[in-house]
Write a structure and sequence with these properties.
This protein is 76% helix and 0% strand. With 413 residues, it is mainly α. The chain has one domain: Growth Hormone, Chain: A (Up-down Bundle). The two termini are 31 Å apart.
Length: 413
């Protein structure tokens, strides 16, 4: 990406950050990328786990959703800590927790043990994104906040790509019974990030909010913040319900409904993942130019249409499904680009961590109902038919925007 010396150059968003802000940006990017790696390896090895423990589609759906449900609890805990002990300290704790339980998943001897570790994994997973988003948002000027947070969000595609490569290679060269465990052991890599986080990264200075308690969970449900919390939670539920349905069930859909091997599934992801990376970056540009609400609303409509097309095309149209992977990945990632800026801007500094953490992870927790429901519906409608249910999630997100203000150009305290 080219740079210029003018304030409005392509990299102006990065050059405008102070030195501490750049360190915070780098640590948050790495943390979220490694967070993505740990999450995305499960869908890729899910068929192997299903075979190892003889699971039903309902059980695999519950396994996939367990972490998303517990992430809502993790988001609340991390949000309170984020406001009370600081953004950076909380980020370190979330990364350590997530890495530990990812590795322990690889030691599970049965389905029940794996389910417990996967659920505990969600505690760390729930706090990492929101904590990093708030940390970076408070260092960033309003005119660049959408793009800056979108680049942090793009780390999800980077981690996803790394997971796809590692899982594909290990499943190809190792026996399936051991390969999925080795893949999970590699998920302990985020712990290495802790060493970086402790070096030279500090919280951004924020204006004192007076005698009010920092990180007060009840405050989210009082006065004008009640409306904000309600509609922001519905928004994140819709967007994440749609996303996680696709992220969790897509590899299974490609293998069972499209009859693809592990290798061929990887080729379909070659279109999907670059589309996701571009979507995050371009979505950030739209967020700063068009506004937070318009960008999210536009992509909610696009995503609902693409989900139906992708899952309902006949098996004779596999080539078109491959091509549709690029716009699908673009659309369901671009809609996330404004979340870091939007949610951070909706709350004052004293509850910014808990507000962002709760609403984002409430969406994860309740949105987890969608992929679990797909698992049970698949027995009657097939995986593809059940996945089209995700289009309704994007409709919910579109409607939730009606209750929220536009925050473009709002400066943070």
């Amino acid at each position: 990406m080219a740079t210029t010396s003018t304030p409005d150059g392509r990299m102006a968003w990065y050059r405008a950050l102070p030195a501490q802000g750049r360190r915070a940006f780098t640590s948050s990017f790495l943390g979220y990328g490694l967070d993505s790696y740990d999450f995305n390896i499960l869908p890729l090895i899910l068929p192997a786990i299903t075979a190892a423990f003889a699971l039903s589609t309902g059980q695999t759906g519950v396994l996939s959703s367990a972490m998303l449900v517990s992430s809502a609890i993790g988001g609340v805990i991390a949000g309170v800590l984020c406001d009370r002990i600081g953004r950076v300290r909380t980020l370190v704790l979330t990364v350590l927790a997530f890495a530990l339980f990812t590795a322990l998943c690889g030691l599970a001897s049965n389905y029940e043990t794996l389910l417990v570790f996967r659920t505990l994994q969600g505690i760390g997973f729930g706090g990492e994104w929101a904590t990093g988003a708030v940390l970076v948002a408070e260092y960033t000027a309003a005119r660049h906040r959408g793009r800056t947070l979108a680049v942090v969000q793009s780390a999800w595609a980077v981690g996803w790509a790394a997971a796809a490569v590692v899982a594909t290679v290990l499943l190809s060269v190792l026996d399936e019974d051991i390969a999925w465990r080795v893949v999970l052991f590699t998920g302990a890599l985020p712990a290495l990030l802790v060493l970086y986080l402790r070096r030279g990264v500090e919280d951004a200075p924020t204006r004192d909010d007076g005698p009010a308690v920092r990180g007060s969970f009840p405050e989210l449900f009082r006065g004008p913040l009640l409306r904000t919390t309600l509609f922001a939670s519905l928004l994140t539920t819709g967007v994440q319900g749609g996303y996680y349905t696709l992220a969790i069930w897509l590899p299974t859909f490609l293998r069972e409904s499209r009859g693809l091997s592990v290798g061929n599934t990887g080729w379909f992801l070659v279109f999907l993942i670059p589309g996701a990376f571009l979507g995050y970056l371009c979505g950030g540009w739209f967020t700063d130019r068009l506004g937070r609400k318009r960008t999210i609303a536009a992509f909610a409509v696009v995503d609902a249409v693409l989900v139906v097309l992708y899952t309902q095309l006949p098996t004779s149209a596999n080539a078109w499904v491959m091509v549709l992977g690029l716009p699908l990945g673009f659309g369901y990632s671009a809609i996330f680009s404004g979340f870091g800026a939007f949610l951070s801007e909706l709350y004052p500094a004293r509850v910014r961590g808990i507000g962002t953490g709760f609403t984002y992870n409430f969406g994860r927790g309740v949105g987890a109902v969608f992929p679990a429901t797909v698992g049970f519906m698949a027995t009657s409608f097939g995986v593809g038919g059940a996945m089209s249910f995700a289009a309704g999630a994007y409709v919910l997100a579109f409607l939730a925007l009606l209750g929220l203000p536009e925050t473009k150009d709002w400066e943070l305290s």
